[in-house]
Design a protein that fits this description.
- The longest helix is centred in the C-terminal third of the chain and has 18 residues.
- The chain has a single domain, classed as Alpha-Beta Complex (Spore Coat Polysaccharide Biosynthesis Protein SpsA, Chain A).
- By secondary structure, the protein is of the alpha/beta class.
- Helix content is 35%, strand content 21%.
């Protein structure tokens, strides 16, 4: 790394919210503040944090305006309507000043050394275009965020089959989740990464056109992964650690299942069908 701060790239972080949990968002920002202290001035020149509100309720907006995290500056961008996760993040990408860009969920706790580890990996290898982290759920169990290319069968099992029934298809589901290789302590090149934490270079994000806004919710991260993958390697890095308090579409009701199915259809139509 350069000793001259003016030679260092900036880091921009974008977080999209839509009536999201304010206590979890505050946790996310607190963790981001701590992690940023280890990189600003040594690995990056500056930190720019933008929260994009995708048309939340007036009550939520008031709570968001009142939110303060000491030691962390961030700006708010508001949309009059919810145009989707990808559209919200594209506003954050456009606002970024170049250098590195982090797509981050509002329900993620970033480990104190996560940003330093991720930036070090990305800066060390020009052939790496994205860094994805090791993730634990709220229960402390590992979440396998990175995926192999999905099949219609696997997605249907994940969306509609009760958890108790998934044990009959454990091999197929585990292969999709890459638990055979992402359960160890080694860095792994992966085909698809999760949008809850994606560290990338802004110029490469712009080169591939950012998120495809035709995906309202779900699979926009997989689609972006496919297009970024044409430029280089997506890296799962277990040294980069987060806690993710989110959940699967199946646990969020039928409206989310419909969006999941619609976005899945678009993904397969765009990138190719795989049935089994």
């Amino acid at each position: 790394m350069s000793n001259n701060v003016f030679d260092l790239p900036p880091l921009s972080v974008a977080i999209v919210v839509f009536n999201s949990s304010l206590p979890l968002l505050e946790q996310t920002l607190q963790s981001l503040r701590v992690a940023a202290e280890k990189v600003v001035g040594s690995d990056v020149a500056s930190l720019q944090v933008t929260i994009i509100d995708n048309g939340s309720s007036m009550e939520y907006q008031s709570g968001l305006e009142a939110l303060r995290v000491e030691g962390l500056e961030y700006s708010l961008l508001r949309s009059l309507e919810n145009r989707g996760f990808g559209a919200g993040h594209n506003r954050g990408i456009a606002r970024g000043q170049g250098g590195y860009h982090l797509v981050l969920n509002p329900d993620v706790d970033v480990a104190p050394d996560a940003l330093k580890a991720a930036i070090s990996l990305l800066s060390a290898d020009p052939g790496t275009v994205l860094v994805s982290p090791y993730s634990q759920g709220s229960d402390g169990q590992q979440e396998f965020l990175c995926k192999r290319y999905p099949s219609v069968l696997v997605l249907a099992l994940r969306a509609f089959l009760p958890v108790i029934g998934r044990r009959f298809f454990a091999t197929a589901l585990q292969r999709y989740e890459m638990s055979d290789v992402c359960g160890a302590d080694n860095n792994v090149h992966v085909p698809l990464a999760s949008g809850c934490f994606m560290l990338m270079r802004k110029d490469q994000l712009v080169q591939v056109g950012g998120f495809d806004e035709r995906y309202f919710l779900y699979f926009e991260d997989f689609d972006l992964s496919m297009r970024l993958g044409s430029l280089g390697a997506l890296l799962y890095a277990p040294s980069v650690r987060i806690v993710h308090h989110g959940g699967y579409a199946a646990s969020k009701g039928w409206r989310h299942l419909r969006m999941f199915a619609s976005s899945g259809f678009r993904f397969f139509r765009q990138h190719g069908w795989r049935w089994i």
